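Q: I have 200 residues here and want to know how they pack in 3D. Can you give me a structure?
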Amino acid sequence: MQPVICLASNSPRRRELLSQIGVSHMVMAADIDESVLPGEQPRDYVVRLAREKALAIRRTGQPLPVLAADTTVVVAGRVFGKPRDRADAIYMLSELAGREHEVLTAVALAGAHGVGERLSANTVCFRKISAEECAAYWETGEPRDKAGGYAIQGLGAVFVESLTGSYSAVMGLPLFETGELLRAAGIKYWNGASQGRERA
């Protein structure tokens, strides 16, 4: 089936979620500076990154609409991205343990008529986690490329006491918001019926 959008991410989770709603796609990962700007609020940060990823691929001359997303974990106003190393991952998990945190995922769709954006804000509560568990979890390899140092769809699920919001957004691609953007652009989804295209 011909792709109807370009996904600006190598994330297998985002690919899986797009396939779940029947959207055929190709992949061109975006490489941008993901540093937080001075004084930038977490919600502004994730929306900006999603937009910049989509536009970076669009500027390469990619003719398909480009879908991009960005996820970050926020604890007491602090942005937790992907851990730099073992110590950073264990620190993040210890900060998340026994308390609530916010998971923000922004999604952007860049096409011939500009860029559409949506933001999904979700609350996750972790149970208490021992230092030994944090270290053991790092050794599984799962936290290495995950915002906040954990994967809700993987082994990290055992830490999650409750979730308020969108499970797919915490995974990395909010399907409600993604569906809204696709629908507004005239791109069909479900049952492999993905032959839609951008409105002229």
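Q: Anything worth noting?
A: The helical segments are 12-20, 42-58, 86-96, 131-139, 167-171, 175-184. The chain has six helices and seven strands.
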